[in-house]
Amino acid sequence: MITAIACRRIHNAFGFALFCLVSADTFAQTPAPPSAPTLPSIATDRPTFSDCAFLVPTGHWQFEAGTTANTISGSTSNTYGELITRYGISSRIEFRIANVTWTHAPGESDGLQDPQAGFKFWLQTGSSKRPDLAAEVVTTIPVGGSSFTVNRSQPTAKLLWNQQVDANTSIAGNFVASDLGPTGSRFTQYAASTFLTRTLTLKLSLFGEVFRVDPYTYAGSSASFYDAGVTYLINDNLQLDARFGAGFDPQTNGRTVGAGISYRY
């Protein structure tokens, strides 16, 4: 025979078990907190002549820097810094300060080049049949050293494109128009570039590029160049690069060798 005390104990145990089952079910149905969005791997404007067609993610900073040794027609010079600072204002607008570069020409002159400031704009998301497109508008700020500055702002407009060929290969390039030269010797310079990038591993990629500039100098002729190199992704936010380049034409007979680092946070 079950006593009243036993009934109460059974009732209490049943109630506790029911509470545990309901609580566990409620906990299981509670959605987990959203995880932080996964960013794509860093996309850099260096080390090619071309700028990439992709923007820095919204709210993130990206710094790209490097050094280059130049030898043209027996004359040598070195550039240091080559700093590009980029900030993602929104999914369609990036602010940038570029070409913060110190030039050292042994036996000639040293000094800061005129830096650039401007914006990059997202235009179109690519597919298998159409490229990613972006536009860039920048202008120099005439604050460089006396041997390197131009006494006015020099605006540049660029159309940037990228076509993904397969999971490991892309073709990209730029179309560029610039208003260059000091007051009294202004000229319009056009440039076009194409480069191929091939990913070999999750971290290692190779690239090759050709580009043409017309005219190369005020009242001068056009000039064509090539470069090739490697990028190494330490992690999704940190990349190293190295490159070699040269000119196709007699007036640009020489070579460039450079290396750099890029970081996003």
Fold and architecture overview:
There is one protein chain. This protein is mainly beta and 265 residues long. The chain has a single domain, classed as Beta Barrel (Porin). It has one helix and 13 strands, in the order αβββββββββββββ. The protein has one helix at 4-29; strands at residues 61-72, 75-88, 93-104, 110-112, 116-124, 132-140, 155-166, 169-180, 187-199, 204-214, 223-235, 238-247, 254-264. It has a twelve-stranded antiparallel beta barrel. The protein starts with a helix and ends with a strand. The model is unreliable at 1-30 (pLDDT under 50).
CATH class: Mainly Beta
Strand order of the largest sheet: 1-2-3-5-6-7-8-9-10-11-12-13
Let me know the CATH homologous superfamily.
Answer: monomeric porin ompg
Number of domains: 1
**How many H/I helical runs?**
1
Secondary-structure content class: mainly beta
Order of helices and strands: HEEEEEEEEEEEEE
- Unreliable residue stretches: 1-30
For the record, the CATH architecture stands as: Beta Barrel
**Helix proportion of residues, in percent?**
under 10%
Percent range for β-strand residues: over 45%
Shape: globular
In short:
10% of the residues lie in helices and 53% in strands. It has 265 residues and is mainly β.
Keywords:
265 residues, mainly beta, Porin, 1 helix, 13 strands, globular
Helices, strands, pairings?
Elements: H1 4-29, E1 61-72, E2 75-88, E3 93-104, E4 110-112, E5 116-124, E6 132-140, E7 155-166, E8 169-180, E9 187-199, E10 204-214, E11 223-235, E12 238-247, E13 254-264
Antiparallel strand pairs: 1-2, 1-13, 2-3, 3-4, 3-5, 5-6, 6-7, 7-8, 8-9, 9-10, 10-11, 11-12, 12-13
